[in-house]
Amino acid sequence: LAPLLAGLVVVWGVFALQAEAWRRMVAGWGFRVAWVEGSSIWLLSSMAKYVPGKVWALAGMAMMSERRGVPAWAATASAILLLRDDWILRDVSTVGPQLVEMPFGGHSPPW
User: Fold this and answer.
1) CB count in 10 Å sphere of residue 7
2) Four-residue CA torsion sign, 30, 38, 59, 88
3) pLDDT (tens digit, 0 to 9) for every residue of the chain, 111 residues total?
4) Which secondary-structure segment (H or E) carries 13?
5) Cβ–Cβ under 8 Å, residues 75 and 61
6) Whose CA is closest to 80, among 52, 111, 104, 101?
């Protein structure tokens, strides 16, 4: 029983770190999301990756984020940067200039 509980703690810890990283990246775009809302967006959209087709997780995240006042471009761009296999929780400060040049639509970042 102890290994199972330890595994659950690790899985939920990783989930909490990923959700917080996404929430902070969205905040970097200038859109505030409460921790509970950000965690629910991250959890529910992460579950969608088990549905066939790779777009459902991002589409769900975009839809749920827009309902909470975060534009789809900010939600999905943040998720893509965090979920990229070789970029997980990596410093993406050098990517900023290229992202600013991309035509996302929606509100401009605050900088």
Assistant:
1) 10
2) positive
3) 888 888 888 888 888 888 888 888 888 888 888 999 988 888 888 777 777 666 777 788 888 888 888 888 888 888 877 766 544 444 545 555 555 555 555 566 565
4) helix 2-28
5) yes
6) 104
Q: Would you state the torsion angle of the CA atoms of residues 105, 82, 68, 72, taken in this order, to the nearest 10 degrees?
A: 20
Phi, psi for 88 (deg, rounded to 5): -55, 120
User: At 55, which amino acid appears?
Assistant: V
Tokens of 61: 């995240």
pLDDT tens-digit series, residues 80-110: 777 665 444 445 455 555 555 555 555 665 6
Residue holding tokens 């410093």?
Answer: 91
CB 71 within 8 A of CB 107: yes
Q: What is the DSSP string of 57-100?
A: HHHHHHHHHHHTT--HHHHHHHHHHHHSGGGTT---GGGHHHHH
Q: What does pTM read for this prediction?
A: 0.60
pLDDT given for residue 88 in this prediction = 47
